[in-house]
Amino acid sequence: MATTFDSALQNLGIGRTTTSQKPTIRTAAEVDQLTQNDFLTLLTAQLRNQDPTDPVDATAQLTQLAQFSTVSGISEINSTLKSIQDKLGATSNAEALSYVGRNVLTEGNTAFPRQSGGIAGAVDLAKDASDVRVSIQSPNGSVLRTLSLGPQKKGTIDFDWNGMTDNGDPAGNGPFTINVTANNAGAIVGAKPLVWAPVSSVALSGSGAPSLTLPGIGQIPISRVRQVG
What we know:
The chain is of the alpha+beta class and 229 residues long.
């Protein structure tokens, strides 16, 4: 029986635990978890103390060993995936750092003018709309210009403002507040303003995705970036 058992262990790639092995010192956290050696110790005790007239089913033993080997393999796979995750996290950090100094399009309502004046942005429409309007306000809240984009389909609609007020005067250096409204035959349609903003810094995280810091908007995850300019 012992020879057959040793052969089964060898075929499964498991070394048999012998009484000559020195006991392993385990931490408090490990005491609550059964290891492969614990399993083999219990199995060996079971074989030594079995009833000769009613021996343990060899097929059941092999099934248990195969299941334990599968669990051990899954544990190794999890360790490998964790290593891959760590490497991908390092790549994400490097990618995030490359955003510093560049402009990104993201959801927000605070916009800074371009060097040439005016701003570019977009509207994210949840449904088709018969009328879409973009209101641009000064830092003190007064309306400087209202852009009528007319009927639009669901999705992202770009807009561009030349930096002039409704009266034809220069609007100044901002920052400007962008508000959008949309309706379809009188029914309100969900609409979000998208603005271009420079990335001033990056906040790296060891446990989550890095965040980009945008003036007037704050920190946003990279996943919220729609475009990079």
